[in-house]
Amino acid sequence: MINPIEAQLHAGGGRADRSFRNVCYAAGAVVLGVLGLITVTMIGRSTKALDWMGLDFFTARRWNPPQQIYGILSFIWGTVYTSTIALVLAVPVSLGIALFITQVAPTWLRKLMVYVIDLLAVIPSVVIGLWGVLVLAPNILGFYSWLSDTFDGWPILGSIFGDNPQGRSFFTASIVLAVMITPIIVSLSREVIETTPQFEKEAALALGATKWEMIRGAVIPHSKGGLVGAVMLGLGRAMGETIAVTLTIGSALGQITLNALASGNSMPAVITSEWGEADTLKKSALIGMAMTLFVITIIVNTVATAVVQRSQVKTRGAL
Amino acid sequence: MTATLSPVDQPGDPTPTLVAADLRPQAGWRLLKSRIMIGLMGLSFAVILVPIVLVIGTVVSKGGGIVVREFPKWFTTDIPVRGRAVGPGMKPAIIGTLVITFLASALAIPLGILGAVYLNEYGKQSRPAKVVRFLSNVMTGVPSIVMGLFIYVIFTLRFALSGLGGALALACLMLPVVIRSTEEMLRLVPEHLREASYALGTRKSRTILTVVLPSALPGTVSGCLLAIARAAGETAPLFFTIGIVTKPNWNPFSGSNTALPFQIFRNATSIYAGSKERAWGAAFTLVAITFLFTVFARVVTSAYQKRR
């Protein structure tokens, strides 16, 4: 090992050496500082609205600034609902792409596909939102009407694809979110899947497994934890996305409904659309909403990061 | 199919390939299921191609239209004050995006690289380093709007709307990305390079600055370029921090500013055709800028891989 020798060599070492080390330590501490400051300022700035509304801030669905009533439940619902639909749309597609790239495609095709997915990853979300509001929303209305008519009266699908479809709706926002999080989930799951040891795959094939049976029997059990983490990181991203959702969700207040074709609102969308004309109390309420969002995404991301790290440790242990 | 042939049917020609063919799985439905699943995987790629082609196609056809038609004027005139006005002008937003992104990079990249040096060269697997690593991963997931509000509260409220506020918010977003990609690159630097340097009596700081960082440089550069490309497209952090102007403002330290993503957002919700056209033009310009950064990052990476 180098460390003891190194320590002796540098014992009583130069000032430049120590100051460089301290600078590096400080840079590492900046991460802690920023996260701590975010927590403190967000809590500090939202106490006014929380004092005013009490627990109703989280449990009331009425948001009526002129009467100083600030309940954010419908916006929490909007955030959770759009992200959930986005995951339902994006996860099968992303995992399919990741498996195809890693297990099926020949090398030249693999490179091309990775390139295309990376291309989608660098398109700014505001551009996808622009497309969502000016192209997707007006043109998809016919499809929504068809969905609404077709599933009318069905048990669950009937309420999800409900009456009076709108171009700017939960579902349009979900489609835009799904497009945005697909490249993230694909690239994270690709990394996880690629850690499957070659001999496990060959063992499955040698037992006479078909390609799909090999994927189900060797690849998926090996990478399950990491895949869950990848999906959750996608979820965190979907919940925090602001501009694309603001443009496409339709800005309807107080909507807590299963009807995905109705207009609604989400926490980040309300913050951006109502910030301009806000007084002190309202700004405090909006910051309180940001804090709620911060807490939810932090929980999702912490769990996801822990899951991924644990699966990485497990993988290294297996090798 | 070859699976129906067997050496017994053709005793005169028992080639190895035929024997191999005979050993292939006979169970038709298992093979069929496998093919169906692989087909579905291919299909999912086709599914994601649809929005990619539609988004890029619309941005190029609508946005490329105004940028090419108004070629020099698009980049040299101010943004029309009235949304109703038809015609070009995105110079202030292009300047704003470049200035703010540059300043954010100047803040986040050195800090991020030093943070990664701490994690990989000093902290390693110690408890504080593990905490910093974990929190830096968590910080990657902090929504950009929260960063914007955070900088609004601690900076904009105290000083004023300015490009610097936007740059600070973007820097907060970039920092964990830079730390993560740089640390991965530092981990790839072989241990014997460090040992060789120590053997020559070089101090640790000199070893890091003259041996470790240079050999990790190309990968770090491409990671940073990708972080810059991502930051250039962020809207929400700028929403609360930079304000809005229609004339160019080169100075990020005083006065309001504007940026391409913000102009896209503002003009997308406008009812006027002229504004919508400018939104598409701004989208085209922004995509072109991020795309250039990405291509540049890719070139750097591949040059690096060839050299190794």
**What percent of residues of chain B adopt helix (DSSP H or I)?**
over 70%
Low-confidence stretches of chain B: 1-16
Number of DSSP strand runs of chain A: 2
CATH superfamily of chain A: MetI-like
Would you give the CATH topology of chain A?
A: MetI-like fold
Based on helices, strands and strand pairing, what is the structural class of chain B? Answer: mainly alpha
Percent of residues of chain B in beta strands?
A: under 5%
Q: Note the total helix count of chain B.
A: 12
Poorly predicted ranges of chain A (pLDDT <50, ≥5 residues)? none
- Quote the distance from N terminus to C terminus of chain A: 23 Å
Q: Whole-number radius of gyration of chain A?
A: 24 Å
What is the number of beta strands of chain B?
A: 0
- Beta-strand portion of chain A reads under 5%
Level-2 CATH architecture of the largest domain in chain B = Orthogonal Bundle
The rounded Rg of chain B comes to: 27 Å
Shape of chain A: globular
Oligomer: heterodimer
Query: Span between N and C termini of chain B?
Result: 46 Å
Describe this structure in words.
- The complex is a heterodimer of chains A (319) and B (308).
- With 319 residues, chain A is mainly alpha-helical.
- In chain A, strands 1-2 form a two-stranded antiparallel sheet.
- In chain A, a hairpin with a 4-residue loop joins β1 and β2.
- In chain A, α5 crosses α9 and α6 packs across α9.
- By secondary structure, chain B is mainly α.
- Helices cover 74% and strands 0% of the residues of chain B.
- Chain B contains 12 helices and no strands.
- In chain B, α2 packs across α12 and α7 packs across α9.
- The longest helix of chain B has 42 residues.
- The N terminus of chain B is likely disordered.
- Classes of the chains: A mainly alpha (319), B mainly alpha (308).
- The interface between A and B is large, with 91 and 95 residues.
